[in-house]
Design goal:
With 426 residues, the chain is an alpha/beta fold. The chain is 38% helix and 15% strand. Helix 3 runs parallel beside helix 11 and helix 12 runs parallel beside helix 15 (408-425). It is globular and about 55 Å long. The chain starts with a helix and ends with a helix. The structure holds pyridoxal-5'-phosphate (PLP). Residues 59, 114-116, 119, 142-144, 155, 204, 208-209, 237, 239-240, 264, 274 line the site of pyridoxal-5'-phosphate. Keywords: Cytoplasm, Isomerase, Porphyrin biosynthesis, Pyridoxal phosphate. The modification N6-(pyridoxal phosphate)lysine is found at residue 265.
């Protein structure tokens, strides 16, 4: 038995499904996961000594590639001073200053420990600030696993076909209204019916949890206007897109100023971190300056702050995002060409360091179209690529991530593996 198999057998005895987060278990693509012992640049290495080109990047944070020396050095140097103090520390101030300077809509920010915590706190704040109870989310968007968001969610919920989770009281789920993404008329109708009850509307400005879906021209602006008109807060969940699609996130790419934003992944440099922030008048409602309660034993942890700051600073290098965009474009163009050579229906969506692959004939602009793509074919493609040393997300409903360490040789190798994989599954 391989070390991978042995570990998965052991894991299944003592961990639900053998994993600590559902999509890792390969349930939708079939087979069993591999266990990673080391990662470097664009590569993962498993316990059986296999090397994989990695397009998951720890689900987003690893935009510099794995084990980047700046991040590693910052973590080691900071850890030597102590792992956690439970008092204010200088690095959390530096982080807050850095974030508020980088993202114009962030006038104040609060650090937390995950994306889930960030979105959970953001909607509590929206409810506390507006005195209203309902929130609006979009079909296929994933905002972490808090009760209010497990309604028509994306990511693992969608991958595993769990429309809503047992354990979420109906009384809570009833306060979450849902909308189809990229349909402004539907949003107008919902606000016309429920406007005075809506505390906030939360969305991934670019959906990365139902594969990758981009907003249509003017759509986000339309949502901004609707929220302003009805006194509801516009909340951009940039846990995935923040500092990945542009230096100041999707909001800078589309020129929208949300009232609140949430972040995670990249801002922790690979350590467990989240953040939420926005308009100062709203953020001042958070305890201890205001009455809306939210706290955290490890929030603003110095080692996590050091990792995130080192990563964010490295992203300020000239032409960083241009180079990342170029790498993603080369990858998507090469994959599309190779798929079409095998006569397969295939299309991609991409933005800077994110991409989505669809076995579909038409460009994909909606959640319904993403769901209608050939996921069974994706599952076979996933395994064909894995066999050739390329690791894509083990689900047809997750975006892929390119890092700056994915150079031309790595992209060429990926496209060669894809050409053989497409021929195999055609
Ligand atoms: N929001 C978005 C857009 C995400 O993609 C995720 C996780 O993938 C989350 C929130 C939840 O973040 P975490 O897994 O850190 O709790």
């Amino acid at each position: 038995m391989s070390s991978n198999q042995n570990l998965f057998e052991r894991a299944q005895q003592c961990m639900p499904g053998g994993v600590n987060s559902p999509v890792r278990a390969f349930k939708s693509v079939g087979g069993s996961p591999f266990f990673v012992s080391r990662a470097e640049g664009p590569y993962l290495f498993d316990v059986d000594g296999n090397r994989y080109i990695d397009y998951v990047g720890s689900w987003g944070p690893m935009i510099l590639g794995h084990n980047h020396p700046d991040v590693l050095d910052a973590v080691i140097a900071t850890a030597r001073q102590g792992l956690s103090f439970g008092t204010p520390n200088p690095l959390e101030v530096e982080m807050a200053e850095f974030l508020t300077q980088l993202v114009p809509s962030l006038e104040m920010v609060r650090m937390v420990n995950s994306g889930t915590e960030a979105t959970m706190a953001a909607i509590r704040l929206a409810r506390g600030f507006t005195g209203r109870n309902k929130i609006v989310k979009f079909e296929g968007c994933y905002h972490g696993h808090a009760d209010s968001f497990l309604v028509k969610a994306g990511s693992g919920v969608l991958t595993l076909g769990l429309p809503n989770s047992p354990g979420v009281p109906a009384a809570v789920a009833d306060l979450t209204l849902t909308l189809p993404f990229n349909d402004l008329e539907a949003a107008k109708a919902l606000f016309a019916a429920h406007g005075p009850d809506i505390a906030g509307l939360i969305l991934e400005p670019i959906i990365g949890n139902a594969n990758l879906i981009l907003p249509r021209a003017g759509y986000l602006q339309g949502l901004r206007e609707l929220c302003s008109e009805h006194g509801a807060l516009l909340i951009f969940d940039e846990v995935m897109t923040g500092f990945r699609v542009a230096p100041a996130g999707a909001q800078s790419l589309f020129g929208i100023r949300p009232d609140l934003s949430t972040f995670g992944k990249i801002i922790g440099g690979g350590m467990p971190v989240g953040a939420y922030g926005g308009r100062a008048d709203i953020m001042r409602q958070i305890a201890p300056s205001g009455p809306v309660y939210q706290a955290g034993t490890l929030s603003g942890n110095p080692v996590a702050m050091a990792a995130g700051l080192a990563m964010l600073k490295a992203l300020q290098a000239p032409e960083f995002y241009g180079r990342l965009t170029e790498a993603t474009n080369k990858l998507c163009q090469g994959l599309t060409r190779a798929a079409h050579e095998s006569g397969l229906p295939f299309t991609t969506n991409q933005v800077c360091g994110m991409f989505g692959l669809f076995f579909a004939n038409e460009p994909v602009e909606t959640y319904e179209q993403a769901k209608a793509a050939d996921t069974a074919r994706f599952n076979r493609f996933f395994h064909a690529m894995l066999k050739r040393g390329v690791y894509l997300a083990p689900s047809a409903f997750e975006a892929g991530f390119v890092s700056i360490a994915h150079d031309q040789a790595v992209i060429d190798q990926t496209i060669a593996a894809a050409r053989a994989s497409f021929a195999e599954i055609a």
